[in-house]
């Protein structure tokens, strides 16, 4: 029992409400605050911050995932949220993906954006090494980007001749209402507050413009798929979504969904789980890529073919990746 905790009704209440996990007493901060702040002794307790659904801001969901000290709780809206919140956020300048992950689907991703906004100024959030950036420039967009890694930002500025702001989108000082469209890939699971981040992105877009992105859909999976998907990689991933959850998330950020194209990624996921199971058993904390050296590029090309090539023709079900397009709710069309 932590220093300062008293063995009274509240402790029993906490026990009965199931906030005990692996010997750590977690207190629902909202619930506790209403009766704690009048008692000085309680102020010394270091509360572990319980997670909550970023859309509904509630935190009573049942546990759907477990990984180490973290649980993923299922919200009724479709989001799975991490609980407790990690002490430290993941370093946004670190990216474990192979370059093929960005280069192989780059044209398809630009094609998705172009289906809704044909030309103009595009803001890319997290340009990395510029694979999407180059494809967007070739497609006729004027691209500007935000990227927290100074090294990558410098490389993209040098090779593609565009301006890159060294920042997270939440801190970006680029002018609001400046862009015709925006794009990012697989960032929603990492933003500390995905509603605030999407709101910051939406603010950069002019009336009539579009917010486009790609996001993995890994919530509400059957036990079969959950086993095949393997570890959820918490706390690097803090939120997991399904298609209805994305629509609610957009709504909370002042946006409305205009289109979504989903690709089942079960084949690709199963391949990495089967190949990776021995490595994960030997080194559970390793994030090293499964294929390295000469084998890496063909291995990840195969993955991309399974996801976007074959995946397009497979029946829906299991984990998916989705291309999403949205507009301001205030736009009439
Ligand atoms: Zn929710």
Which molecules are bound in this entry?
A: zinc ion
Chain-averaged pLDDT: 82
Low-confidence stretches: 1-46
Helix fraction by DSSP (H/I, runs of at least 4): 25-40%
Known CATH architecture of the domain at 100-263 and 322-328 = 3-Layer(aba) Sandwich
> Got a strand count?
13
Strand content: 15-25%
Q: What is the global morphology?
A: globular
Give me the strand/helix succession. HEEHEEEHHEHEHEEHEHEHEHHE
SS summary, helix count: 11
The largest sheet has its strands arranged as: 8-7-6-9-10-13-12
Radius of gyration (CA) equals: 21 Å
CATH fold field value of the domain at 100-263 and 322-328:
Rossmann fold
Question: Superfamily at the CATH H level of the domain at 100-263 and 322-328?
Answer: Vaccinia Virus protein VP39
| CATH class identity of the domain at 100-263 and 322-328 | Alpha Beta
Intertermini distance = 57 Å
Pfam family, one: Methyltransf_23
Organism: Mesorhizobium metallidurans STM 2683
Protein name: Methyltransferase type 11
């Amino acid at each position: 029992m932590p220093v300062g905790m008293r063995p009274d009704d509240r402790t029993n209440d906490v026990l009965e409400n199931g906030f005990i996990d692996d010997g750590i007493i977690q207190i629902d901060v909202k619930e506790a605050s209403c009766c704690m702040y009048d008692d000085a002794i309680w102020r010394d307790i270091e509360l572990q911050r319980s997670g909550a659904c970023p859309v509904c801001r509630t935190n009573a969901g049942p546990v759907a995932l477990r990984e180490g000290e973290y649980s993923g709780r299922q919200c009724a809206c479709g989001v799975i949220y991490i609980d407790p919140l990690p002490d430290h956020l993941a370093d946004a300048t670190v990216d474990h993906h192979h370059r093929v992950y960005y280069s192989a689907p780059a044209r398809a991703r630009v094609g998705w954006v172009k289906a809704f906004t044909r030309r103009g100024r595009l803001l890319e959030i997290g340009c990395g090494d510029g694979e999407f950036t180059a494809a967007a420039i070739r497609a006729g967009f004027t691209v500007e980007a935000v990227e927290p890694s100074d090294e990558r930002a410098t490389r993209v500025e040098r090779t593609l001749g565009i301006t890159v702001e060294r920042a997270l989108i939440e801190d970006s000082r680029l002018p609001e209402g400046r862009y015709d469209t925006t794009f990012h890939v697989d960032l929603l699971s990492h933003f500390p507050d995905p509603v605030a981040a999407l709101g910051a992105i939406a603010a950069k877009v002019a009336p009539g413009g579009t917010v486009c992105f790609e996001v993995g859909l890994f919530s509400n999976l059957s036990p079969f798929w959950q086993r095949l998907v393997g570890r959820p990689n918490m706390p690097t991933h803090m939120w997991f979504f399904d298609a209805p959850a994305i629509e609610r998330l957009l709504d909370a950020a002042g946006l409305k969904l205009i289109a979504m194209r989903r690709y089942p990624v079960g084949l690709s996921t199963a391949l990495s789980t089967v190949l990776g199971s021995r490595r994960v058993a030997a080194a559970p904390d390793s994030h090293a890529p499964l294929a390295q050296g000469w084998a890496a590029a063909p291995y990840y090309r195969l993955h991309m073919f399974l996801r976007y090539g074959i995946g397009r023709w497979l029946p829906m079900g299991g984990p998916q990746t989705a291309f999403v397009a949205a507009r301001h709710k205030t736009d009439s069309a």
